């Protein structure tokens, strides 16, 4: 065959093929552009949880802070952190030299006035002194006794004692250090019985009840689900912060430690077998679904709404393909392509 004769034919029909390919590409492009891809998921069955969020601190159920009642100097620290102590045990001492001297002086005065009261009583019985003189002697003795008792209490307060059985959870201060009534030198409590003290917004308090399940998250234990239970709700709130203190009991084997900060979610409502879709799919009370290759706007009734998933009570089924992120420009009846979300 004459190649020179064939070449013009190849060139002629090759151009037609190229033009056809270009047209096909443009048509496909326009069709795809006219049918935007939308990510879809099928509703799933699972637990739906509505919870009240708060932050809190891990504390012993029974504990106390011990510190001076007046400015003084530390003279002795008799226990250390981790020591087991009994109620009434002396934990530390403050400088009591001045207080002891004061007690000794007042004790001597009280003894003298006690004898004077006794003497005036005998004289009054013999009508050798007036009632007024006798009553003054009684009054002077009573005042001296009150002063002595007050001084003895001041002296006693310079010995820091444990108000309950427990363990020294923390100890601050050194011998020789001057401390004030704002100082806390010892924390004593029971480390095996813990709870979380959380501050809950006053608007949420009517929904909180003793016994409700609580989901607890601590940064020290990432990915670990901790469960507690509402143990107490304080009857009086903080009018400044507008919160109420809620205490969440922890199991005996809890890994959290005293002083750790936590996030708590108090479960106020729960559905075990709820129909769930991502919260991003809901737009103004509607879900968008793909049916027959077209986007359809469906009004739905919702139930529990969580941070990531929400419960659908009516409007869609598990077989529907729900658009996860409906575009703002999406129109009812518009042709779309489903893009399955893994």
From TrEMBL:
Species this chain originates from: Candidatus Muproteobacteria bacterium RBG_16_64_10
A Pfam family the protein falls into: YknX_C
Ranges where the CusB-like beta-barrel domain occurs: 193-266
Protein name stated in the entry: Efflux transporter periplasmic adaptor subunit
Gene3D superfamilies, sorted: 2.40.30.170, 2.40.420.20, 2.40.50.100, Helix hairpin bin
Transmembrane segments: 13-32
PANTHER family: MULTIDRUG RESISTANCE PROTEIN MDTA, SLR1207 PROTEIN
UniProt keyword list: Membrane, Transmembrane, Transmembrane helix
Record GO terms (molecular function): efflux transmembrane transporter activity
Family the UniProt entry places it in: Belongs to the membrane fusion protein (MFP) (TC 8.A.1) family.
Domain Multidrug resistance protein MdtA-like barrel-sandwich hybrid: 63-184
Residue ranges occupied by any YknX-like C-terminal permuted SH3-like domain in the UniProt entry: 286-337
SUPFAM superfamilies in UniProt: HlyD-like secretion proteins
Classification via InterPro entries: Beta-barrel_RND_2 (IPR058792), MdtA-like_BSH (IPR058625), RND_pump_MFP (IPR006143), YknX-like_C (IPR058637)
Coiled coil (UniProt feature): none
GO cellular component, one term: efflux pump complex
Highest rank taxon of the organism: Bacteria
């Amino acid at each position: 065959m004459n190649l020179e004769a064939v070449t013009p034919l190849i060139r002629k029909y090759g151009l037609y093929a190229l033009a056809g390919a270009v047209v096909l590409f443009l048509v496909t492009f326009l069709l795809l552009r006219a049918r935007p891809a939308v990510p879809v998921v099928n509703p799933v069955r699972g637990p739906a949880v509505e919870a009240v969020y708060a932050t809190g601190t891990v504390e012993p159920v029974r504990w106390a802070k011990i510190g001076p009642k007046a400015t003084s100097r530390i003279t002795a620290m008799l226990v250390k952190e981790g020591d087991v102590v009994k109620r009434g045990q002396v934990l530390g001492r403050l400088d009591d030299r001045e207080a002891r001297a004061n007690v000794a002086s007042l004790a001597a005065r009280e003894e003298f006035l006690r004898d004077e009261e006794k003497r005036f009583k005998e004289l009054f019985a013999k009508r050798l002194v007036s009632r007024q003189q006798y009553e003054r002697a009684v009054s002077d003795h009573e005042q001296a006794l009150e002063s002595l008792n007050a001084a003895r209490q001041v002296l006693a307060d310079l010995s820091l004692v444990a108000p309950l059985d427990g363990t020294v959870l923390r100890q601050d201060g050194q011998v020789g250090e001057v401390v004030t009534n704002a100082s806390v030198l010892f924390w004593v409590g029971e480390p095996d019985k813990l709870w979380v003290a959380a501050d809950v917004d006053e608007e949420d308090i009517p929904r909180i009840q003793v016994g409700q399940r609580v989901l607890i998250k601590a940064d020290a234990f990432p990915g670990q689900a901790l469960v507690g239970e509402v143990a107490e709700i304080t009857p009086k709130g903080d009018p400044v912060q507008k919160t109420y203190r809620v205490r969440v009991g922890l199991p005996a084997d809890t890994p959290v430690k005293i002083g750790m900060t936590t996030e708590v979610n108090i479960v106020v409502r729960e559905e075990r077998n709820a129909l769930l879709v991502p919260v991003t799919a809901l737009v103004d009370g509607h879900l968008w679904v793909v049916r027959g290759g077209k986007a359809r706007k469906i009004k739905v009734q919702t139930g529990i709404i969580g941070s990531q998933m929400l419960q659908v009570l009516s409007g869609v089924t598990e077989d529907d393909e729900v658009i996860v992120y409906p575009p703002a420009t999406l129109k009812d009846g518009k042709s779309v392509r489903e893009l399955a979300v893994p």
